[in-house]
Design a protein that fits this description.
Structural class of chain B: mainly beta
Helix content of chain B: under 10%
Number of strands of chain B: 11
Order of helices and strands of chain A: EEEEEEEEEEEE
Radius of gyration of chain B: 13 Å
Shape of chain B: globular
Distance between the termini of chain A: 41 Å
Largest sheet of chain A: 6 strands, mixed
Shape of chain A: globular
Largest sheet of chain B: 7 strands, mixed
Number of helices of chain B: 0
Number of strands of chain A: 12
Order of helices and strands of chain B: EEEEEEEEEEE
Structural class of chain A: mainly beta
Number of helices of chain A: 0
Distance between the termini of chain B: 37 Å
Strand content of chain A: over 45%
Oligomer: heterodimer
Chain lengths: 115, 117
């Protein structure tokens, strides 16, 4: 079985400061892990994905995430927040060779960026 | 690449009417598309998995006769909300999986907001 827990429902940072959005997963199989971002009233945009290659994954807009198997974590970071980063972020897991294609979503973390 | 569109982006309808939402993969073929529902301030809930040329697989608790899904081609899936009622008001999002891609990346459409009066 797979599950994902986003440890914070809401994170608030000041513009220019680092961002850390935490995600822990549980998976019976080797997982694929994703971070998606959703701006208000929009669909989801893929930020980055981990699929058993390099454990440090770089995504779009300066975001990156590190897969830590020992900690079952896949935290999302960015060195310097921008106002446009304010959005909802979803951590997602699926078995790496998931024939069914189902994604397991976390509950989401709302990121606020203060000027 | 990997762009998914939805139409309409939002729709208002009267209770009892049916509403069709289209999901298209614009620059790739999608053997599998997924339909999600999202309530305000909540995560996405998978409603059904749609495979081209076959019947959709619905998640537990989703009424297949109310939410009709058709996936007639490799680039188009439709969701029809039949006899819509106010409780069906929600944000509906589709996604598509690239055919032949090993890593299970899904690309999401922009969503359709449905309001049933």
């Amino acid at each position: 079985a797979q599950s994902v827990t986003q440890l914070d429902s809401h994170v608030s940072v000041s513009e220019g400061t680092p961002v850390l959005l935490r995600c822990n997963y549980s998976s019976s199989y080797s997982p694929s892990l994703f971070w998606y971002v959703q701006h208000p009233n929009k669909g989801l945009q893929l930020l980055l994905k981990y699929t058993s290659a390099a454990t440090l994954v770089k995504g779009i807009n300066g975001f990156e995430a590190e897969f830590k198997k020992s900690e079952t974590s896949f935290h999302l970071t960015k060195p310097s927040a921008h106002m446009s980063d304010a959005a909802e972020y979803f951590c997602v897991v699926t078995p790496i060779y998931n024939q069914g294609g189902k994604l397991i979503f976390g509950q989401g973390t709302e990121l606020s960026v203060k000027p | 690449g990997a762009v998914v569109s939805q139409h309409p982006s939002w729709v208002i309808c009267k209770s009892g009417t049916s509403v069709k939402i289209e999901c298209r993969s614009l620059d790739f073929q999608a053997t599998t598309m997924f339909w999600y529902r999202q309530f305000p301030k909540q995560s996405l809930m998978l409603m059904a998995t749609s495979n081209e040329g076959s019947k959709a697989t619905y998640e537990q608790g989703v009424e297949k006769d109310k939410f009709l899904i058709n996936h007639a081609s490799l680039t188009l899936s439709t969701l029809t909300v039949t006899s819509a009622h106010p409780e069906d008001s929600s944000f509906y999002i589709c996604s598509a999986r690239v055919a032949g891609e090993i890593q299970e990346t899904q690309y999401f459409g922009p969503g359709t907001r449905l309001l049933v009066l």
